[in-house]
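hey can u check if this looks right to u? its 214 residues, i copy pasted from the old doc so theres a chance i mangled smth
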Amino acid sequence: MHFPGQITTSATGEARYTPDRATISLGVQTRAVSAARASADNATKQRAVIDALRAQGIAADQITTENYSLSAIQVYEPNTGDKSPRITGYNVSNTVRVEVKKVEQVGALIDAAIAKGANEVSSLSFHSSAPDSLRRVALADGFHQAEADARVLAQAAGGRLGELIEVTTSGSGTEPPRPMAFLAAKAPSTPIAVGEMSTNVAIMARWRFVEGAK
């Protein structure tokens, strides 16, 4: 029995873009002798931080509590007579995630938060407001590459590319920013540079191979 030949190719499609959105995690850590005092001090400072962000135009639904923790600060010094760890105070940490819709605000937002008591910036990431559109561009790019490779292979084998049998995609990812500056926040704000990024999608496709055709 004769089985028609097939050609299978794969490619990675890419869509490059300049991020227009950012996510910042801003934290306030406070210490005090008592848990109540540490918590109260933290609440006061975090409220001031949130108010400062709101004053910069950040809406309430763009600010989300990401983490809150209260822990005892323990010291154990057996050389000074300690028979067991003793509590010397308490540490409170409160982190909020801020979704920034205007990427040029990032530096000013960080500065405003720090000025009101934020003492931890645990993460800063950039992304696009249209990830679905970018993925579709990457899908098309990957398919065109796979098809072009398949046509070359078919011709090299003495035939031509037949009908498409199957096309699949597996996974997608975002490349970290390249070190090329796009944005620098105006002084005296913290300077923030945003590089070009890309969305990548893997494509695999199969076609029938038509033998001997010109």
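The two ends are 25 Å apart (CA to CA).
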